[in-house]
Write a structure and sequence with these properties.
Elements (H helix, E strand, L loop, with lengths): L4 E7 L3 E8 L4 E8 L7 H8 L30 E6 L4 E3 L5 E8 L2 E8 L4 E9 L5 E9 L5 E6 L2 E4 L6 E8 L2 E9 L5 E4 L12 E5 L6 E7 L4 E6 L11 E6 L6 E2 L6 E2 L2 E7 L2 H16 L12 E3 L1 H4 L5 H13 L4 E4 L29 H9 L3 E6 L3 E2 L4 H5 L19 E2 L5 H17 L4 E4 L9 E2 L2 E2 L3 H16 L4 E4 L9 H4 L4 E2 L7 H12 L8 E4 L13 H9 L2 E4 L8 H21 L3 E5 L6 E8 L2 E8 L21 E5 L15 H6 L1 E4 H6 L11 E9 L3
Parallel strand pairs: 22-23, 22-33, 23-24, 24-27, 27-30, 30-31, 32-33
Antiparallel strand pairs: 1-2, 2-3, 4-5, 4-10, 6-7, 7-8, 8-9, 9-20, 9-21, 10-19, 11-18, 12-13, 12-15, 14-17, 15-16, 16-21, 17-18, 25-26, 28-29, 34-35, 35-36, 36-39, 37-38, 37-39
The chain binds (2R,3S,4R,5S)-2-(hydroxymethyl)piperidine-3,4,5-triol.
């Protein structure tokens, strides 16, 4: 039964979406692209892109549209999967959702679909966020009284315009997050799910599609800190027009989302942005993160330089050693002293004591007070590491709450890093964890918590059955409760590095830990990958020791420090183990970071293209100022190094360009016109973006900073 056919457009500053809405039938998104002029004939637009029926298609070719289903011959993944409990088994429902209503607001469209036989409704919301980011969510309610379980509901199902034929996805491991893979969008499509109860190191919740001809870029993300299911069905048999369909949603175990007892289910938010190129896409995501995701702050708050004890001292903690470390930290310009793992219970290594969030008397006979007072007397504030969702079998907490961890009844309890996951759905457990953290934050002047999560969720089971999906909701609830009680405390989301990074957790925290790998060469890949979506101010970026504890590579302090400036800078090494020269170099870069963070943490990020794949270039422009980093990782003969071309400048404006010192120790000898670089060369934006700067990028592990200031016209 088909009713009226209408066309609706949703406009952002730079983007338009056009929907075809057929009441009693399907809803489709027939245009996604640059903003259309007012008055565009939408019916003509839809007609221009419609396809006639092919002989091999069903008599009525299905329109999967924004709610694809298996009905009528579409062979891709359905956006919704329901099963019904009958007397003897669960049987898959043949769903048939029809558009029954829609409401349009200036920046939002709500579509309601109904399956008359099942008596189930799905509501989809599409709305425009900051910087023309398009957000989508779906919810489902069971009004038919049947005993249903929900196995799948996509937050977003988006027919992809054909011009987006290049796909970039990510893979990754611990200490090697977000490896980018680009290739043509193949007929077999794409599918990626996570199973660890978190997005994971592999970034399956981030995706990019590009038009190779124009560079136009579509970036997609699922704002959810649990498991995801991301897929693109391409080359679908039976589809009316053969467009690929991209879907994103949360993933869970069969039977977990019960529509019989639950009120309903709402998906997390999926987001996508359209931009002219990769830099413009980064800027869209950053603007959205700053305006609509990150916890609001009063004005612009400088991101303090951290010193974190983990790669400085590890578990080798003593009160006197930490006091000494704090003195050395303050001397190089550190603003926040962070005590990482090992301060609580009997935790002298990683086999014990998670869950016992009380200060270890062996290390701190008088509690944390003396250390915090000392840190504060040195002009720094104090941060503390916690891992609240976990428990060590060897802990007082576990001995008191043996049934409080995720486990399968009467089965072994396999550990990972010697630990188990607490069942946060159990109010007694969540409450006990909250009370311990709350007591710490009440007793001590703690400005920041590094909230870690070092174990996958297996088995994600509790007495109620699978909790793979709901554990994340209860993690959010715990974090929200703590933040409500202590709104002044900054939170970092860490999960063995970048295992849980998404806009869901970022709406409740202030920064993320992108990777345990502090090796500057690795960071030159990891930071550009994350900063494709996340602004630099949320990406913890630390100067680690040399040799690096994970890769074993040695790198000069000048290189490590310049690379670490492009993020939320910190130090994760012991200054006492550095030479005087290294300490002075580090202190100079910390001072530079303080001078430039107002630009780095509020401006527009540009990725600098360079013909040498061993050169990484990034640049941030803000209110007439800019700072760029050009970093070389491998050897390149001196005359071969192509100039570094800048980006994001006004072609007609004039800029004073300097190379902030300290300069890289070896490369500086190859710099022509040193005095001019100190005083500043005045060049037009056009010259800087076209011709670029011939910097000595010869030696492996050489980095230059380039500072620009626009001159009055
Ligand atoms: C994993 C984190 O990623 C590290 O930075 C560190 O905090 C350790 N956990 C401590 O156990």
């Amino acid at each position: 039964m088909s009713g009226s056919r209408e066309f609706v457009r949703l406009d952002g500053a730079a983007v338009t979406l056009v929907f075809t809405l057929e009441t009693g039938d399907a809803a489709d998104c027939v245009y996604l692209g640059a903003r259309l002029p007012d008055g565009e004939d939408l019916a003509a637009l839809a007609a221009a892109t419609a396809r006639g029926r092919h002989e091999s298609q069903p008599d009525v070719p299905p329109v999967p549209g924004v709610l694809p289903e298996g009905k009528a011959g579409w062979s891709g993944t359905p956006a919704v999967c329901l099963r019904e409990r009958t007397e003897h088994a669960f049987t898959e429902c043949a769903t048939d959702f029809r558009l029954v209503a829609w409401e349009q607001y200036p920046t939002e469209l709500i579509l309601t679909f109904h399956d008359a036989l099942l008596g189930v409704d799905i509501e989809q919301s599409w709305w425009l966020g900051a910087s023309s980011m398009v957000c989508a969510e779906a919810s489902i309610t069971n009004g038919g009284g049947r005993m249903l379980v929900l196995d799948r509901l996509s937050a977003l199902a988006l027919p992809i315009p054909r011009r987006f034929s290049r796909l970039t996805s990510y893979t990754g491991r611990w200490a090697g997050e977000m490896r980018e893979h680009s290739r043509p969008l193949a007929p077999e499509g794409f599918a990626r799910t996570s199973v660890a109860g978190k997005p994971g190191f592999a970034g399956g919740n981030w995706l990019i599609l590009e038009d190779p001809a124009s560079g136009e870029t579509l970036g997609v993300h699922l704002a959810w800190s649990g498991d995801h299911d991301t897929r693109i069905d391409a080359d679908m048999v039976g589809s009316a027009d053969g467009r690929a369909i991209l879907q994103m949603g949360a993933a869970w175990d069969g039977g977990e989302v019960d529509l019989e007892h639950d009120v309903g289910y709402r998906t997390p938010t999926a987001l996508f942005a359209l931009a002219s190129d990769r830099s413009a896409l980064a800027q869209c995501f950053h603007e959205h993160a700053r305006a609509a995701v990150l916890p609001a702050r009063k004005g612009w708050v400088p991101r303090k330089v951290h010193l974190n004890s983990w790669e400085a001292l590890g578990f080798n903690l003593s009160e006197s050693g930490l006091m000494r470390l704090a003195v050395d930290a303050a001397a190089i310009g550190i603003e926040r002293f962070v005590l990482d793992d090992g301060w609580f219970g009997g935790r002298r290594d990683d086999t014990t004591s998670l869950g016992d969030w009380t200060v270890s008397p062996d290390i701190f006979p008088n509690g944390l007070g003396p250390l915090i007072d000392h840190v504060k007397s040195l002009g720094m504030d104090f941060g503390l590491w916690v891992e609240p969702e976990m428990v060590s079998p060897d802990s007082d907490f576990y001995r008191a709450h043996r049934s409080g961890c995720l486990h399968a009844a009467d089965r072994d309890r396999p550990t990972m890093r010697g630990q188990l996951v607490l069942n946060l759905l159990d109010p007694a457990i969540s409450d006990a964890v909250f009370r311990q953290l709350d007591a710490l934050l009440r007793e001590y002047d703690i400005a920041y918590l590094k909230w870690d999560h070092n174990r996958d969720l297996f088995p994600a089971k509790a007495r109620v059955g699978s909790v793979r999906n709901s554990q994340t909701k209860y993690f959010y609830a715990l974090l929200d409760r703590l933040r409500a009680a202590h709104p002044q405390v900054e939170i970092e989301s860490c999960s063995s590095g970048g295992g849980r990074i998404d806009f869901g957790v970022l709406s409740r925290s202030h920064r993320v830990w992108p990777s345990d790998n502090n090796d500057a060469i690795e960071r030159l890949r990891i930071i550009p990958a994350w900063s494709q979506f996340l602004p630099l101010e949320v990406l913890g970026s630390h100067v680690g020791p040399s040799p690096n504890p994970i890769t074993g590579r040695r790198a000069a302090m000048d290189f490590r420090a310049k690379v670490a400036m492009f993020g939320h800078m910190g130090v994760e090494a012991d200054p006492a183990r550095m030479t005087d020269k290294e300490r002075a170099t580090l202190a100079a870069h910390i001072a530079l970071y303080k001078q430039w963070r107002g630009v780095l943490h509020a401006g527009d990020l540009h990725r600098l293209a360079h013909p040498d794949p061993n050169v990484t270039g990034m640049m941030v422009t803000h209110e007439g100022k800019a700072l760029a980093l050009a970093a070389q990782t491998a050897f390149s003969p001196v005359f071969d190094a192509a100039p570094v071309r800048l980006a994001g400048l006004e072609p007609g404006a004039r800029y004073r360009v300097t190379l902030p010192e300290p300069w890289p120790p070896r490369a500086k000898h190859y710099l022509a016109n040193s005095d001019s670089w100190r005083e500043g060369l005045v060049l037009s934006g056009a010259a800087l973006m076209t011709q670029g700067l011939a910097l000595p990028l010869t030696h492996p592990e050489t980095a230059w900073l380039i500072a620009l200031e626009r001159l009055p016209q």
